Amino acid sequence: MLQRHIRARARTRAGAVGAALAATAALLVAGLSGSASAGTTPGGASGGAPPAADALRTDAAPPALLKSMERDLGLDRQQAERRLANEAEAGATAGRLRAALGSDFAGAWVAGAESGTLRVATTDARDVPVIEARGAEATVVRHSLTELDAAKARLDRAAAGRDTTDAPVRYVDIRTNQVVVQAARPSAARALLSAAGIGTSLARVEKSAEQPRPFHDLRGGEAYYINDSGRCSIGFPVTKGAQTGYATAGHCGRTGNSTSGHNRVAQGTFQGSTFPGRDMAWVATNSNWTATPYVKGAGGQNVQVTGSTQAPVGSSVCRSGSTTGWHCGVIQQLNTSVTYPEGTISGVTRTSVCAEPGDSGGSYISGSQAQGVTSGGSGDCSSGGTTYFQPVNPLLQNYGLTLKTAGGNEEPPGEEPGGTWAIGSVYQAGDTVTYGGATYRCLQGHQARTGWEPPNVPALWQRV
Question: Which of 138, 222, 347, 355 has its CA 20 to 30 A from that of 323?
Fold first, then answer.
């Protein structure tokens, strides 16, 4: 495997793109020394625009969330606050570099107790000055992220229709620039790689006793009951036009199943549910229930949700569940495939947060940004474990839902005058929109909300 750090002696990429990026060097909030160039803010925003930490409201993180980060990540309060701010800046910087590097881009992740280091991988050494000009560390690797994602897609296709319970976890590990197959029996993983036509230079096998399963036995988060029987937890309150409801895990119930709340009062009905394949669902509630922009935190405190910007690999993330309370960890891999006894799900995020039966469907949040709903995992909160969550943005997009956020985002989805950007739409990195006569490229996946118009949030949009 080719992976090495390249420093300033690497050859400079010719062309205006590299020169322009070098002229707007930027630094993470507290992780790197020096100061940003005149006229820039951390993360590369120019013209006095607010830094990503301000735009994404990392200051809205409640004391309960910070306290859990301190306990689970070994931080003090100031370190936890700086970590959230650094991760917001890192996500914006990584998005700009992904756009600049194009097909060379091979992934980005944060490192350090305060996420003060952003590392960006590329397949071309000539990109190194461009990366370093943004305050990030450069790593030159053999395979692009596009190539790795394509290899994992081949693995998923090869796994379809066969029993993969002995090789239940597959993901792209951007840190090592390989596709990983975790297996109780390595021979099962090797057989899957062979069926997909993937060699050892592109993939590796890890022996693991992990046997993921959904956490739906008992209640988690704010409990609800399905057909007066099983229990799960609310993920995030949502709206669909004038209809209120909440997002949750698909394995918790099927379309048409009725629900009652934690107090056993009639609540709503499953409007859509997907499992396996994905693990997403939403419930429409009756007029007795009001959607709020909160997640239930430690001690019953409200944890404010201000958006759904996807956090990068290595970022801190916290989970709410009634069985085990608040626990925090880090995002390990995106776009993971996991085989449960009920079948395989793809596109989930792998984390180091622990969970136990009863935590299913509950909320994952980074700072004040919604990340996803609890799907399943292995281990427990006594011995440690691994969990997976269904990312919230694909769930919102699939069912046409709008996340309930603090600050008022009650407008129905719709196009803004003079452009294609629309409130309530879910955007992924690389998407382009028009607004006010200009074209913008999305830097980080999120759902659009009032106040996040492209000119106002350089952490999310770059004018092109």
Answer: 347
The residue among 27 and 378 whose pLDDT is bigger is 378
> What average pLDDT does range 254-263 have in this prediction?
92
Is 360 one of the annotated active-site residues of the chain?
yes
Domain residue spans of the chain: 3-141, 146-207, 213-410, 414-463
pLDDT digits (tens, 9 = 90+) for 48-79: 567 899 989 898 888 888 988 999 999 999 99
CATH class of the structural domain 3-141: alpha beta
Domains 3-141 and 146-207 share a fold: yes
Q: Which of 127, 279, 368, 425 is catalytic?
A: 279
Annotated catalytic, 251? yes
* Residue 363 known to be catalytic: no
pLDDT of 221 reads 56
pLDDT value of residue 425: 95
User: What architecture does CATH give domain 146-207?
Assistant: 2-Layer Sandwich (3.30)
Maximum mean pLDDT: which of 32-36, 133-137, 219-223: 133-137
Label each residue of the chain as H, E or C. CCEEECCCCCCCCCCHHHHHHHCCCCCCCCCCCCCCCCCECCCCCECCCCCHHHHCCHHHCCHHHHHHHHHHHCCCHHHHHHHHHHHHHHHHHHHHHHHHHHHHEEEEEEECCCCCEEEEEECCHHHHHHHHHCCCEEEEECCCHHHHHHHHHHHHHHHCCCCCCCCCEEEEECCCCEEEEEECCHHHHHHHHHHHCCCCCCEEEEECCCCCEECCCCCCCCEEEECCCEEEECCEEEEECCEEEEEECHHHCCCCCEEEECCCCEEEEEEEEECCECCEEEEEECCCCCCCCEEECHHHCEEECCECCCCCECCEEEEEECCCEEEEEEEEEEEEEEEECCEEEEEEEEECCCCCCCCCCCEEEECCEEEEEEEEEEEECCCEEEEEEEEHHHHHHHHCCEECCCCCCCCCCEECCCCCCEECCEECCCCEEEECCEEEEECCCEECCCCCCHHHCCCCEEEC
Query: CATH number of the domain at 213-410, please?
Result: 2.40.10.10
Could you tell me which CATH number the domain at 414-463 has? Answer: 2.10.10.20
Question: Out of 273, 315, 360, 425, which one is annotated catalytic?
Answer: 360
